[in-house]
Amino acid sequence: xxxxxxxxxxxxxxxxxxxxxxxxxxxxxxxxxxxxxxxxxxxxxxxxxxxxxxxxxxxxxxxxxxxxxxxxxxxxxxxxxxxxxxxxxxxxxxxxxxxxxxxxxxxxxxxxxxxxxxxxxxxxxxxxxxxxxxxxxxxxxxxxxxxxxxxxxxxxxxxxxxxxxxxxxxxxxxxxxxxxxxxxxxxxxxxxxxxxxxxxxxxxxxxxxxxxxxxxxxxxxxxxxxxxxxxxxxxxxxxxxxxxxxxxxxxxxxxxxxxxxxxxxxxxxxxxxxxxxxxxxxxxxxxxxxxxxxxxxxxxxxxxxxxxxxxxxxxxxxxxxxxxxxxxxxxxxxxxxxxxxxxxxxxxxxxxxxxxxxxxxxxxxxxxxxxxxxxxxxxxxxxxxxxxxxxxxxxxxxxxxxxxxxxxxxxxxxxxxxxxxxxxxxxxxxxxxxxxxxxxxxxxxxxxxxxxxxxxxxxxxxxxxxxxxxxxxxxxxxxxxxxxxxxxxxxxxxxxxxxxxxxxxxxxxxxxxxxxxxxxxxxxxxxxxxxxxxxxxxxxxxxxxxxxxxxxxxxxxxxxxxxxxxxxxxxxxxxxxxxxxxxxxxxxxxxxxxxxxxxxxxxxxxxxxxxxxxxxxxxxxxxxxxxxxxxxxxxxxxxxxxxxxxxxxxxxxxxxxxxxxxxxxxxxxxxxxxxxx
Length: 677
Prior knowledge:
single chain, 677 residues, alpha+beta, 21-stranded mixed beta sheet, two-stranded antiparallel ribbon
């Protein structure tokens, strides 16, 4: 690191006047600030010109003799331009080009210089695990769009949100924070020096550093109360009393108050001032460029400042650049996480390994594939749009693509579904994705591969027995399009599954084979309580899994055969029918009949004919490989959140939640749409 050029630390708003109660100390041997430029500038050399050159410069071009006006020729040809006129035209064109270039470059520079600095330009690359940035600029287009989008909901208005901030921080934010608050706040997670520790840094853009320092001094009690003091910390906050004995009462604890604010001590380290409180909260903070940076301790902030000066920054990391480059700019929220750095830190954390080590080991081959991920959130029209990009580790892929689709997903099965389902998930060629996931697990160590195979095989064995193979019998049914749908409610759901068969004759025979084995194995188990006699003769009770008898019956609807399976005494019935090259399965017989009606052309109303589809699904199908749609109201109702008087006002605006996923050679792009009512 010694051969690296030191980076300049500067602020657009320098601290010219120290706030009261700020004491500055020097750390070790005083060093010259690297902000000071050299004063001894070399004198400019005088221009030397020869007499001939001077004579040439002072010569005046002879005036051109007056010319007779050119008479217009009868042939209709335009008069020829003189060399002087041609020169003027060329000069005018060059001037316009130069002006356009100046405007273009000036616009780029203006946007670059006056937009908030990204946290990735400040964070050290070696141990920056994650970051979150939020736009706080009230004049920005995104913040304005947010409040316009939520204008009908009082809890999301400025006054209500300001009241929450005031209550949380015990301040008048309009008077004490807004005057110095900049355009962006952020949070960063840093891998600490201690084994497996993850430390947090808070970034707040400061428009005026002196005012920020005054706030930090005045409201130190807020930070003090927010921190939980350890027993050893409490001792340092007591008034010294050398005469105290075991018989004397303990010394009176001195807590900083607004009337008695703690002293702020400033220590200069390599040109950066590190601030801490004397007899106050055990936090450290500094100013880096336009940002106030806070850390849990003075040591944390010193480590960060030292790495900021000497280390490479996160913005130079190739995975960060790939992720950020595949996401739209100018978002209201931006987040980034490096999974490899996170797992590396967790592996060093003894407490985490002791509790979750086996889980981490089992999932590591799969999770290691996803190297880093970024998120942006925009307010747009009548919805919020979030987009993520997940960068894949090329070494684990070993030169192969994660998933490649030879065909485009068209959503053909959506035509058979009712107008507004509570949940739907669709895509194509699920077999390819399942096989790829299995390959990734098996590319790791032997133990995770065995765990993965064991889990899949156990579930298959439970419901279909040993005569059905996953790859031989089940996977081929998912090579076409698939669609899973939930209707009615999540408390009493009607569940449907539609499969588009690629090889109709072969796939139908496979499906019949799977159903026959399912009926024979009776793979539905219901927990029952039964009495048991213990070895000492006492009678106890235990829960056992009892297999349910499955009854099969066949009926007909509009010349289409419908097979029904009654799952014992569970009250569940499953109905299915073959519609040309489509297997339609549903727990609701009337739902299956409507699917048949739409397939036969006897029913026009459905999902693809309604506003729900036009508004939420159709716009995203053009670029999706997978799609998920959820009615958020059904989820909040299931978890009982709609009856919560405090939470429910914050949930009311959010309606439909749509997720689309696209697979690329080196990453996965996912889009999330949240519709506002």
